[in-house]
Amino acid sequence: MQPLDHLATQLLIGTDRRAPEWPSAGGELGRLLNQIQADATASSETTALRLAGALAVCAAAGFRPPLTDRPPLPPCPEDVRPVAAEPELVATLQAILDEGPDPLRVLAMRRLDATGYLLPPRLLPRALRLAVQQNDLRPWLPPVVGERGRWLARLNPDWSPALSLDDAPPDPDEWDTGTLEQRCRFLATQRRQDPAEARERLARTLGETDARGRTRLLAELETGLSLEDEEFLEACLKDRSKEVRRQAGALLARLPDSRYVTRLTERVGACLGQTRKRLRQVLTIEPPAAFEPEWALEAIEETAPQGERLGQRAWWLYQMARALPLDWWIRQTELDPAGCVRWAKSTDWELALLRAWSEALVRTPALDWTEAILNRLPVDGLVLDPLNLVDRLPATEREAYWLDLIEKPPRGMTLGLLLGRLTQSLVREDLTTLSVPGARPLLDRIYRQGLAGRLVQDYALRHALPDFIACLPDALLDEAASGWLLNGSESPVCAETQARILAIVRQRRLLIHYLH
Length: 516
Known about the structure:
The protein contains 28 helices and 2 strands. It is mainly α. A hairpin with a 2-residue loop joins strand 1 and strand 2 (about 280-285).
């Protein structure tokens, strides 16, 4: 228990019922605590409050002193980089960290790094707390928090994930007594440092965990995945939980040379045939007519879940085909990806094949396959998120598809949801800002599509529009500010969103001014 928590517990009991055990520490903090306790004129309550105040300030800075004396803390190493110290810039950075939006936080950290500056020390606790919660911020934080930020994160274990301190050995207590989230974090860290030891540790204790825990922990083997994990994953294909079996199969499918992929390749290959059509041989595919018991050992389920659109035989084909590498289909059909998609349309099993190929694209993104499937959409009965496919395109081509989606949103997708996904994709792919040719038509289309009415009706748009403005290239900031056109609407919702956007534009201009 930390000193502040220990002090709070004593105060709840009451200092009149039990003499308090005042906290102690080394160094300057210890001298301050002793000075507070030595004031004979203060009551126990006053002393407790003064001690709590001192400890709370330490806690806000990340310091967690023990209840007993310990050796003095090692000094923080000196930073080589200068600290961003201009008062207006510091205030702007604080506002960005406090209020966001997330893409603007990432942009600010990137600009700090590009210009060789560090975050001011008083902003480090806020930045570290944010990065614990927001994965997108983590890659950009280490260079701008410097030695002081790493020093603080090592003092406060709660902040370690913010900097992904992979050089620090994981705490065995997190594995032995921690929550499922802590055990997953422990396993991920150990997989980065020693994949074999992490796998063996999981193998020894996997049977002691429930199905949900086994599935979550098994997913962490994706880090450092190799053929050395094959035997363990093959054993997991026999797990009593179908979720665990499915997770093991998904991991084995990421290993093209695994026995699992070889077996399923043979099964799908047996479904291929030839037929004569108009004086030429045409490739055909025909799934098995009956379920084979040994398929269960490949994580293939006989019965489709309720609501599944695929028929029974198509369900079997889809489960087999989704594990196959995309290159295998090119070799078997002697067609390019666009030709494979046309061939699938000519069969009775297009739905199963397109779903299988889309899942294979998640493992091994390929531009030609992505474009081929996108150009085939929509397909009746195919529940496929086109944005997941668009995210795998190069940035220049991705922007063109985004414009098409803004103009003709998929069914059930509002403008706000589309913009939110667009900005998430930019931040996740480390692009942060759009290109000028790609952003200008997007901005114009969004600003001119009855924006005032949409803002009132679409909560997601009110949230996503500031994120989108944060992702605009610098050259379009003036257009974002002056091009705001709400058709005379005086709605409080519109006014609030406008104020938010103008604030973001001002903050970005200040970043450009000081960090160029």
